[in-house]
Automatic annotation (TrEMBL):
It comes from Microbacterium azadirachtae. Keywords: Membrane, Transmembrane, Transmembrane helix. It comes from the Bacteria. Pfam families: N_methyl. This is Prepilin-type N-terminal cleavage/methylation domain-containing protein.
Amino acid sequence: MTPRSQDDRGVSLIELVVVVAILGVVSLVLGTLFSNMWRSQVAVSAQSQATTRGQLVASEVERAMRNAVAFDVSADGSTIRVNTALGGGLQCQAFQLAADGLHMTVSSSPAPSSGWPVWQADVAAGSGAFISQSGNSVAYSFDALSRSGAQVVAAPVHFQGTAYMRNSAAGSLSPCW
């Protein structure tokens, strides 16, 4: 065997091709891993935001019902109107689940009968939306959508429960409705 001369130093073409192929495979694996991690992060974040949104809606409906002196659920179950024992600007409250989200109005008396602004856009009616039960409670059911931008990235978060009036004396929807 003869010693290498100055011109034989460096890498051969075969060695270079092997290194490039290995780096390509490693890059592809790392790219796929990071892409999956990013999609998972987006889905978890959207699900967390949907959960927070749903909890906010449920707590507002329950708060209005807890302080209600009278309430009314529409025939189609999409709307609940509440006259609360709270004074001032929180006396008349209403929630309506529509195709474009949850509409809400809060006012002193009297409240408008329609044209309420969208309060939560990514909330959709569940089965039954609002159902009056036994004169002093209402069952609610809705889905909080998990979106990132306009794209649904995870399953909706379903909320359902029953909200009860704390006041035993039934009042009137007037002066609110």
